[in-house]
Each structure stands twice: as structure tokens, then as C-alpha cells.
Amino acid sequence: MSGDQLAGPSIDTPGLTHLDAAGRARMVDVGEKPVTRRVAVASGVVSMKPETLELITGGRIAKGDVLATARIAGIMAAKKTGELIPLCHPLGLDSVTVDLGPTGPGTLTITATVSVTGKTGVEMEALTAVSVAALTVYDMCKAADKDMVIGDVRLEAKSGGRSGDYRR
Q1: pLDDT tens, position by position, 102-138
Q2: Is 139 annotated as catalytic?
Q3: Active-site annotation holder among 139, 147, 152, 165
Q4: What's the pTM?
Q5: Alpha-carbon distance 103 to 100, whole Å?
Q6: How many CB atoms lie within 10 A of CB 122?
Q7: Which of 57, 92, 122, 139 is the most exposed place for a label (fewest CB within 10 A)?
Q8: Is 53 annotated as a binding residue?
Q9: Is 48 within 8 Å of 119 (Cβ atoms)?
Q10: pLDDT category, 150, cuts 50, 70, 90?
């Protein structure tokens, strides 16, 4: 290792960036940001055969209650986002909800809403919740339908923080 590598991170780069003055990755310093209420909503879709969705909604998947398990998996994932996504701040979340429901033949929509009172937003936590809930649906149902497709994972809305409100 060179002396530069041992010197540790440089924190003299102004603004909110994941790069220090030397262009190295670092966690953004949010120390001076005000504490505000922040909320993010994300969604995603799992497309499957209509008969697979009927098995899910009828509680007939061999691995158990798909919707309840995916909901819990999404909540747990939101709480672990700081451990899963590099440079993402670990947050003590105020609330996480994950809703799953059919929105058409063979279409299951997942929506996560995450809130925190803190110095940084929760967009990544909401997106992580949706992604892991969708992967859980796939895992529990793959014996019935390996052709499922996870898609359209996206931020729907956010509020709070310096960058203001956003709605897709």
C-alpha cells in the first residue's frame, strides 16, 4: 500500500458527493445537514403467468404465504440497506410499509413507503424494499413459473430534504 492509501479519506470536497478531492469513493458527509422528515415511495412489478398469480392469491404456493413473506422480506431489507448498498448511510427508520397486490392478469405490483426523521433521504431504502420483496416472490414461486420477470423498479415520490419534493 502506498502512503496515500494509508492516509485515509479526504473530506475537503464541498457539497454532497461520493467523491473526495482525489476522486476516491467516500460516504457523503451529512453532518451539517438539518434533520427533517423524509419519505420515499418506490414500486415494482413482477410479471408472471396468470395461473401463478392465482396460486399466490389463493394461498396455494407450496412454500407458504407468498405475500406475507415478501412483505416481511421487504421490510427487513429496507432496514439493512446501509449494509447492502455501498456508501449508503445506515438509518434508524421511523416506518416501512410494503404492499403487494394484483394489478392485472399475471401482474403483481409491489409498493414500499419508507420514512425517517434524519439528515438523509430514504429513496434507497424504498427501492431496496421493493427489490427484495420481488426477489422473494420469485424465489417462492419459481417452481411454478420460472418465466417470471421482475421489472419497473422505480422511485415514485420523495419528500423532505434539501432537494425538495419529487413525484413521478
Answers
A1: 999 999 999 999 999 988 889 999 999 999 999 999 9
A2: yes
A3: 139
A4: 0.85
A5: 9
A6: 31
A7: 92
A8: no
A9: no
A10: very high
